[in-house]
Amino acid sequence: MRIWFELTNSPHINMFAAMIRDLEREHEVIITCRPLANTIDLLDLHGFKYEVVGQHYGGKLSAKLFGFPVRVWQLCRFLAGKRVDVAISQSSFHSPVVARLMGIPSIYMNDNEHAMGNIPAFICAKRIMVPEFLSMEKLRKQWANPRKVLPYPGVKEGLYLWELDQRLAQAVRPPRDPAARKKVYLRPEPWTAQYYKGSRNFLDELVLGLKDQVDVVLLPRGKEQGVHYQDARFGGVQVVTTALDIADIAPDCDLFIGAGGTMTREMAVLGVPTISVYQDELLDVDQHLLQQNAFLHRPQLTAAQALDYLQRAAQQPPNRGLLEKGKQAYALVKQTLLNRAA
């Protein structure tokens, strides 16, 4: 089979990396992407062959609406003559539309019920795969046909973290110096996301309050955000300008502070002490993890509160229930893919 993966944002690389390697043993895999956040850096880090198609059109809705048909056309042109058998994507609104236009059965996966792009994707996809707890009522509001919907067990992050957890358990790492300063990883808000309505740069005071007490590693969501935190007043903060593998972050992190998004949930599932400072309405997936006490939600977090929590919190074992569900979800997604979204 010839399988098309459309990977349009950084989290999609980790999500599908193990499955791509698994499928490449017997099938041909085509990967397309766009230059957003660390997507291309992560593809290079994993050693995948890919094609950059189109661009990201920023945070303005008008620009996104203009760019959507442009990239659909660009993808159709790239895939013409490649005889793709089945397509799969997570939150790529373009992929199901392109697949429908080209007569390719497609799987569309999403766990963000606030994304407007779900509407064309739900309409055009042959199969819609979402976490088991996402309400059918919310899916219907975005024109999802219930007959297309195939829920998978657990959360999206479990799909790949079960495999990462096995690798981390086998890895041999040098012991950390007990006298070393604690290390806090911080992931700011998604500036360019259509669904995000919260404020920008609201973490500045938190970063300034932490940087002299702990080692702060900041993981920007793109070059512009990285430049902001490279200003002289943030001296001492390590701003990561290249891709970091989650396998390197998780064992090194004493506290993760994230303004929502996949990385915040990844750390929580892996048992890393995690605080979400997301300013907007929480997604259903975040509410689900909150009910399991996987992380704290503190939108108005101060440096003093973060440092207090850091002193009290301890690394927990990974959430075995979610990892086991993730393994089941992986098998379900793979089988659905090999069945050509049937």
- What structural class should be given to the helix and strand makeup? alpha/beta
Number of helices: 14
Query: What Rg is obtained from the alpha carbons, in whole angstroms?
Result: 20 Å
Instruction: Indicate the CATH topology of the largest domain.
Output: Rossmann fold
Enumerate the strands of the largest sheet in spatial order, edge to edge or round the barrel. 3-2-1-4-5-6-7
Distance between the termini: 15 Å
CATH architecture of the largest domain: 3-Layer(aba) Sandwich
CATH class of the largest domain: Alpha Beta
The total count of strands amounts to 13
- Output mean pLDDT: 94
> Can you write the helix and strand succession as a string?
EHEHEHEHEHEHEHEHEHEHEHEHEHH
Portion in beta strands: 15-25%
Largest sheet: 7 strands, parallel
Domains (count): 2
Shape: globular
The named CATH superfamily of the largest domain:
Glycogen Phosphorylase B
The percent range for helix content is 40-55%
Organism: Duganella flavida
Protein name: DUF354 domain-containing protein
InterPro entries: DUF354 (IPR007152)
